[in-house]
């Protein structure tokens, strides 16, 4: 008997856009004193040379792999990952700030950490570190 599994993995921007967060800044992390929020920038970060919302959504949807354990256990949910786009365009300090399950969290972190170099944000003519929160929604439609 052949079992078909229908899975939908969505990088959601409609309800939860990648956005700046003050959560990490408020923790008193000394490494966060020079991090900027999106609304304070003259130029927002670019991903693969394009506006980050659409380009990053495409990257995630093409590269995320629904974890086998989550498929088998029919686990769905939204993982929110917070990270910094550094002045050199690299991603750092990626961490889960809203968990769905260990396996979904791990996959969301993997995809974000492995993203290519970004074009950093700009404020007052200078490249700056930018803090983003991005949700990754996993929807397991079950076994038929």
Question: How does this structure look, described?
Answer:
The chain has 144 residues and is α+β, with helices and mostly antiparallel strands. It has one domain: 2-Layer Sandwich (TolA/TonB C-terminal domain). Helices cover 20% and strands 36% of the residues. It is built from three helices and nine strands. The strands form two sheets. Strands 1, 2, 5, 6, 8 and 9 form a six-stranded mixed β-sheet that branches. A three-stranded antiparallel β-sheet has the order 4-3-7, with helices on one face.
| End-to-end separation | 11 Å
Instruction: List the secondary-structure elements in sequence, H or E.
Output: EEEEHHEEHEEE
User: What is the class in the CATH system?
Assistant: Alpha Beta
Rg, Cα atoms, Å: 16 Å
The major pleated sheet works out as: 6 strands, mixed
List keywords for this structure.
single chain, about 140 residues, alpha+beta, six-stranded mixed sheet, 3 helices, about 20% helix
Write the layout of secondary structure elements.
Elements: E1 5-10, E2 35-36, E3 46-47, E4 50-51, H1 52-63, H2 68-72, E5 77-85, E6 91-98, H3 102-113, E7 118-119, E8 121-123, E9 126-143
Parallel strand pairs: 2-9
Antiparallel strand pairs: 1-9, 3-4, 3-7, 5-6, 5-9, 8-9
Q: What is this structure, in a nutshell?
A:
With 144 residues, the chain is α+β, with helices and mostly antiparallel strands. It has one domain (5-143): TolA/TonB C-terminal domain. It has helices at 52-63, 68-72, 102-113, and strands at 5-10, 35-36, 46-47, 50-51, 77-85, 91-98, 118-119, 121-123, 126-143.
């Amino acid at each position: 008997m052949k079992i078909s599994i229908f899975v939908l993995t969505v990088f959601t921007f409609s309800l939860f856009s990648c956005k700046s967060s003050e959560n990490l800044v408020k923790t008193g992390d000394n490494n966060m004193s020079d991090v900027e929020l999106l609304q304070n920038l003259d130029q927002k970060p670019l991903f693969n040379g394009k506006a980050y919302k659409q380009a990053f959504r495409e990257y995630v949807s093409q590269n995320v792999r629904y974890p086998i354990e989550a498929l088998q256990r029919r686990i769905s949910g939204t993982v929110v990952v917070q990270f910094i786009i550094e002045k050199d365009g690299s991603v750092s300090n990626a961490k889960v700030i809203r968990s769905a399950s260990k396996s979904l969290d791990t996959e969301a972190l993997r995809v974000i950490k492995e993203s290519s170099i970004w074009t950093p944000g700009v404020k007052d003519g200078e490249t700056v570190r930018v803090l983003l929160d991005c949700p990754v929604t996993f929807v397991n439609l079950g076994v038929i």
